[in-house]
Design goal:
This protein has 281 residues and is of the alpha+beta class. It is 52% helix and 17% strand.
């Protein structure tokens, strides 16, 4: 197709006219975009500093600041395309449909997200707490939005989904400052109970990590067919718990050896019907 000079002139004039008509829109739209990005960053920094100043949880602070930043960016993008003259109603409808589809496909992730929010807001535990949940025990190393990271005693990292974590039972071993150890020591019926109890009490009194208040308890827990079971319940600071637990068992065994008291070993009871000799007959 051949274009004569008059047609080229008409196209050029039309282009210049359109450019002149839409230049204010383009300039104002991009001005809104760049200024909006700068202002949104300022708002995000201000809100983040404000939450840190209010001693909000670091995980919650980062999450809320990120959510705020993306909300501001979405609003800015809608304002930008609206200023360019693009119809936004259909665009919003498309975003809504996409959000519904993503929500349906990520139900498990959304459950974990909600669980993470509940954990962050209600704080059943915090970083560095030792907890037991979902069949595992470990120290909380990080609380993320979707999972919580636990570090076990043998230095293994476990990722527990926040959805199941927030809906299940949680034992927080670090929330209280002191803990009680519940130990059971079995002695034979030939042993003087008072003498054995006095020895255990002396062991507990000589351990500086055992708290004086609340006072430790030593009592008869049960009388079985082959042993007298003594309940030993010393109190200790949470950080000293396992040390007190192990020291009590070790020191009681050594003190009993010195006094000539034998700790009764566990003997499994068999009924006559289930006696091992039945299988030999």
């Amino acid at each position: 197709m051949n274009l004569n000079p008059d047609q080229l002139t008409d196209y050029a004039n039309t282009f210049i006219t359109v450019l002149i008509d839409y230049s204010p829109k383009f300039i104002s739209a991009f001005l809104i975009l760049f200024v909006g990005l700068y202002v949104s960053r300022l708002i995000n920094r201000f809100i983040r500093k404000l939450m840190i100043k209010r001693n909000l949880d670091p995980t919650l602070t980062k999450f809320l600041a990120d959510i705020l930043l993306w909300v501001l960016r979405v609003l800015l993008f809608v304002s930008f395309i609206s200023k360019l003259g693009i119809e936004t109603s259909s665009f919003v409808a498309i975003l809504g449909a996409m959000g519904l589809a993503v929500g349906l496909s990520l139900q498990g992730s959304l459950s974990n997200f909600a669980g993470g929010m509940l954990i962050i807001l209600f704080k059943p535990f915090k970083v560095h707490d030792t907890i037991e949940a979902q069949g595992v025990i470990g120290t909380v190393s990080e609380i993320q939005i979707f999972v919580t990271k636990l570090l076990t005693a043998n230095n293994q990292t476990i990722f527990v989904p926040n959805g199941s974590l927030s809906n299940g039972n949680i034992i927080n071993y670090s929330m209280e400052k002191i803990r009680r150890a519940d130990l059971t020591i079995a002695i034979s019926y030939d042993t003087n109970i008072k003498e054995a109890k006095d020895i255990i009490i002396d062991v507990l009194n000589n351990n500086p990590k055992v708290l004086k208040a609340p006072a430790a308890e030593v009592s008869v827990k049960n009388l079985t067919d082959n042993a007298i079971q003594l309940a030993v319940r010393p109190w200790a600071a949470s950080e000293d718990f396992w040390g007190v637990y192990a020291d009590t068992l070790q020191n009681c065994k050594q003190a009993f050896d010195t006094a000539g008291i034998v700790i009764q070993p566990f003997v499994k009871e068999f009924s006559k019907k289930n006696s091992p000799t039945d299988s030999l007959e």
